[in-house]
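Dear support,

Our group has been running a series of protein-ligand predictions, and this particular one with magnesium ion is the one our PI (initials K.S.) wants archived with full inputs and outputs. We had some confusion internally about which version of the output was final, so please treat the block below as the authoritative record. The input we submitted was:
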Amino acid sequence: MKKTRELIAANLRLVGAVVEVCDARIPVSSRNPIIDELTKGKPRIVVLNKADLADERETGAWTARLSGRGADGGREGCGSISAVALNAQSGQGMKKLLAALGGIAASRVGNAAAGSLGVMVVGVPNSGKSSLINRLTGRRAAQTGDRPGVTKGKQWLTLENGMRLLDTPGILWPKFEDPNVGMNLAFCGSIKDEIMDAPTLALELIRTLGELYPSALAERYGLAAARGGEPPADSADGGGAGSEYGSGADSAWDGGTDPALALMEAIAAKRGCILPGKRVDYERAGRMIVGEFREGKLGRVTLEKAGQGSGL
Ligand SMILES: Nc1nc2c(ncn2[C@@H]2O[C@H](COP(=O)(O)OP(=O)(O)OP(=O)(O)O)[C@@H](O)[C@H]2O)c(=O)[nH]1
Ligand SMILES: [Mg+2]
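Confirmed final output from the archive:
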């Protein structure tokens, strides 16, 4: 991370704009405070990427809020910011991004040609920086992957119009003041999966979804609605807590009354994540639930709502 910080600082004078690629599902948690510090004074476009996975209404509210048209605008001291919702895979939203970049190019004194603009693309790991660059250049020039830490160093790429784009490795910050931030980044794959075990992550995700999208899991896995974190009503046929699927003597779980755990066990049973001796395979179930969330199979979800007071 120190190396990436230095890379951003050293190359800042070579660019006229910064594109900060965030995850539309977590517009607060995926905005790195270090990037504010490092890129102060540069015109910035905040991209809410992976908009195809996020709640459309929330993304609309967030883009308005981040662009300063909403209730409280962007964060203080950030210079000029505009926000664009994007799907870097399909290209939806790309026209707006190009228009915003064109606007920055045109506003530079005596330098109206979009082509002369240098643009640094920064953001948390796995947010889609390299995918965005590939989409803009129209070729797979930058390496991408469904895990954090794919881009290891800087890479300059040039568009047909001459605009120069700098791809950078994902950057995190040393300490999360709010533990929810770390959790949200882990849900969305911005933190290496080795750092948190899959069952714990899945359990936290089940709790979070239970609050925000109470029917998402029940619908996906064909369970009776588990509102407000209540245990699933069909645990008898779904294999919920207290069912024939015990936690197993070697399991770290103490089982019992946790409704999120009961729901996880019901999901595990539905999907056949069961070990010999009818023990729940928490590892496999946890990986599956988190994986399906990341792929959008649990529905379009935004974990941080624009209407709530937040750390912007
Ligand atoms: N659904 C969806 N997936 C996306 C989108 N943009 C990128 N991805 C996927 O997200 C994953 C990460 O994309 P990358 O472009 O490698 O992300 P990055 O920010 O360059 O990642 P690092 O270099 O590791 O920091 C890949 O699996 C992409 O296919 C998007 O808009 N929607
Ligand atoms: Mg990358």
